[in-house]
Automatic annotation (TrEMBL):
Source organism of the structure: Atopococcus tabaci
EC number: 2.5.1.17
Phylogenetic placement of the source organism: Bacteria, Bacillati, Bacillota, Bacilli, Lactobacillales
Annotated family: Belongs to the Cob(I)alamin adenosyltransferase family.
Protein name (Swiss-Prot/TrEMBL): Corrinoid adenosyltransferase
InterPro entries xref list: CblAdoTrfase-like, CblAdoTrfase-like_sf, PduO-typ
Keyword ATP-binding part of the UniProt annotation: yes
Amino acid sequence: MKIYTGRGDYGNTNLIGGKTVYKDNLRLEAYGSLDELNSLVGWLIALCHKEKELLTLTNELSLLQHHIYDAGTDLADPSGKLEERLTEDITKWLEARIDHYDSLTQPIEKFILPGGHEAAAVAQYARTVTRRAERKLVSLMKEEEISKNAFIFVNRLSDYFFIAGRYINEVMKVEEPFYDRGGTVFHLDD
């Protein structure tokens, strides 16, 4: 299999089923955002892998990479003729993991800023990329039918990354940065 084909030199590519579209097609934007997210999850795995306390989370993230890829594949099929890879069971599993990590963190009393441990900051970044992908999916579903399971999975995924970031800070004993309305005023020395 060649790395390059030259088919995209004119600004287009093929969807599953052979339909040719421009590379800025809404469907391509949607599953391309999931591809970006998957790369970000790879970075998060690399950071979590360094910490033995995060082994279970690291293994889950590796599994989630496959599910994110499945969501992208389900979205790349405009015909809907292929059997969907994502099921309701995967989303239910994700919800159970969210509940589990939520039970291991302190109750939320203030808005939390992305940060703390480096892996927690990347988890929060993954949350925002997931939200962007979800917005792309909403734009697409206004125009075309999409996989309901993939959409719901992506919606839950952002919640997972939020609580994963909180859990990482909790386990690594790093204080979460909280939002301070108006911020703190710093005086710089001349």
